[in-house]
Amino acid sequence: MAFMCIFGGISAFAWDVDTRRQDIVLKNAPEGTAFADILVKDKKNDKYAACFNEENGRLLGVGKDCGLAVYEEDGYTSMLLRHNCAVFEKADLSEHSSVSFKLNEENNKLFNHFRRIKVACCDKDGNILGVTDAAGFEAVHFNTPAYYRIEANGRSLSCEVNTGPPYFMMVLVPAAFILFAVIVIAAIIIKRAIRKASTAGMIKRIQSGEVDNERKK
Questions:
Q1: C-alpha triplet 156, 161, 163: angle, nearest 5°
Q2: If pLDDT is split at 50, 70 and 90, which confidence band does 217 have?
Q3: What is d(CA 134, CA 75) in angstroms, rounded to the nearest whole number?
Q4: Residue 75 CB neighbours (<10 A)
Q5: Is the pLDDT score of 70 beyond 60?
Q6: What is d(CA 115, CA 151) in angstroms, rounded to the nearest whole number?
Q7: What's the mean per-residue pLDDT of the chain?
Q8: Helix/strand/coil (H, E, C) string of 122-138?
Q9: Which has the closest alpha carbon to 89: 99, 97, 79?
Q10: Percent of the chain with pLDDT over 70
Q11: Residue 158: CB partners within 8 Å, gap ≥ 6?
Q12: What is the DSSP letter of 46?
């Protein structure tokens, strides 16, 4: 019963988010946009940097000489084509336009590394049609799962961070369930001990009465 209390409580409090999935929401994208990419500012000896990501090149149908692959303005380069930390999934340019990536690491780790980004809107051949202004991410501490909403609207860019439940609640709620379980178990043990002592006392009185009867005889 105690296990069910703890497990059920923690499961109810769980924050079910795929932290390796990343979407870019596009609004007012330039005409002819077929997909969008995140531009990140490379760091010295960056572990994610690559000359050209051939897998994403095949998925996007572009080559290493396209505009997105050679873009290096202000130190920003393509996450999909010049790094090995994300894989292109799909571009849904319907009424609710979005582009989806699958990250090789959880997004809190990745965007704690790349703290500032831009978004580039590209045509089907990988030519850049427009680039947003830069925007930054908040730092995520305690390895708390975080889901980032990236929204590009013309040249403006916003990066929203949802760190899930407050950190103290992630500790407090499981602790409360554990304390409740301990109290329940202690109550059961005490109740059984009282019942056992009561039964033993009753048996003793019965046995004592039988001895007295034998003496009277």
A1: 175
A2: low
A3: 12
A4: 10
A5: yes
A6: 16
A7: 82
A8: ECCCCCEEEECCCEECC
A9: 99
A10: 74
A11: 135, 149, 150, 151
A12: -
d(CA 149, CA 146): 10
pTM for the full model? 0.70
Burial class (CB in 10 A: 0-12, 13-18, 19+), 144: middle
What are the tens digits of pLDDT across the range 83-130?
999 999 999 988 778 999 999 998 888 988 898 999 999 999 999 999
* Per-residue tokens: 65: 């000489």
Burial 1-20 (b: 16+ CB within 10 A, else e): eeeeeeeebeeeeeeeeebb
Give Cα 129 to chain centroid, integer Å: 32
SS3 110: helix
